[in-house]
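Data card: per-record layout.
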Amino acid sequence: MTALVNAGEPRFLQEGLKGVEKESLRVQPGGALAQTPHPYELGSALTNEHLTTDFSESLIELVTPAFRTSWELVQYLCDLHQFTYRHLGDELLWATSMPCRLASDAEVPIAYYGESNVGRMKSVYRHGLRNRYGGLMQAISGVHFNYSFPAVFWEAYAAARQSHDSGQAFRSQGYFELLRNYRRHGWLVLYLFGTSPTVGKSFLKDAHTDLPMLDAETAYEPYGTSLRMSDIGYRNRNQAEVSVSVNSLDEYVRDLRHAISTPHPPYEQIGLCVDGQYQQLNSYILQIENEYYSYIRPKRVTRSGESPSAALLRGGVEYVEVRALDVSAFDPVGVNQNTLRFMEAFVAMCVLRDSPPISTAEQAQLDDNHLVVARRGREPGLTLSRDGRPQGLQHWAREILDSMEGICEMLDHGDPARPYALALRAQREKLEDVDQTPSAKLLHELKGSEESFFDLALRMSATHKAYFLDLYSPNDARLVEFRREADESLAQQRRLEATQVESFDSYLQRYFLKG
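The structure for this 515-residue chain is written out next.
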């Protein structure tokens, strides 16, 4: 970083592109999961790139374009929420990552994308997810932060590294250095922003009955930060068995392709097509590459019919997708500018730090660090494993935040308000006073209001809806833009279905042969 500063270009980190994907369950006024179809007025979930669905027909995903400033991003996300709420009738968007009260897997409707082959493939894939992991896990929501560094950064970084090439191979190498360091330090994101220390009893069923109960229907981890990112949520036993290296692009693609081409006996028992109905896309360890859940992914925008790994091999890494943020019940859009600014500085720290390859033994320690912080992150005196030795969480976290000061100064260059320094200061306060963490605040709110998790989340959901519907000066031009995009997406889906001639079986065979 010293070499970069001495190069005389203090703005080289500014204007990186950032976007957000935010998931939310649609629920009825009483808090039950909505069983209605994806609202027609929001367009086609298959072809509308800004308003779609994730696993469930009831799980809306709001996707922003990439912006150069956090305030533009949050404003767009706010506009998306306002447009969505205008077309939900009396339904609400659930305000937390962990889902509403659910009776069974069958209560979570699988997303429907129409009768085109690409739409059917998306639905069959989701049938496979339910058969493999259950529907309840697929009802969990999250916030994904997408980021790419500006071109000027890679040019300055290549010069500082004394590389004669700042092209795509160098950039991909840099992004994989980022991925490795995120695996090393990403537990800090769970401590600072985890907002799911509690879960409704109905979600647990017969699993994890060791969790203490806050009330008759609320289970919790007393020092937990993010049950969503623990073995209760996405880090379940099945996914824990999948290991994908981030030591290089070639190794990453190798391991992913191994997982999507290796039969898995428990999934073979599910069957492929039973009584004429597809149960999954295949019986491999992963049906497709997107099934692999990781805290962070290397990404490139794919072409039609192209797999993520093929896109990476074609053009290299274009951006990273950080998937570890919980939906914040304290923010109407689920995230705020301080969080986004910190995440921007954090990924910059990850790329600038030395990042040696990760051995199998080290990866096991890193996975355990994430799990420990997800379940016990606020525990006094908690230690993690660092280079095979115990390290206090608080001491290690302070060291990381200290290393980010210079990065925030560069991101703030020319801005007297110093928003990145302020974002960093806000995170320091969470280290000095653990009660300032969102997970602690959520538990404090529950205990103070004597509400169940379900009742608190429902109240916050209704509060957020009222906020968006009562906004005094809506962005009328943007709302018109969303209406036009919704209409165009519906027309695009109709064209796809009207011009289709290939059978679904043939389509699937061709897709997987293409690899």
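Known properties of this structure: The longest strand covers residues 17-27. The first helix runs from residue 2 to 6.

See the next section for split statistics.
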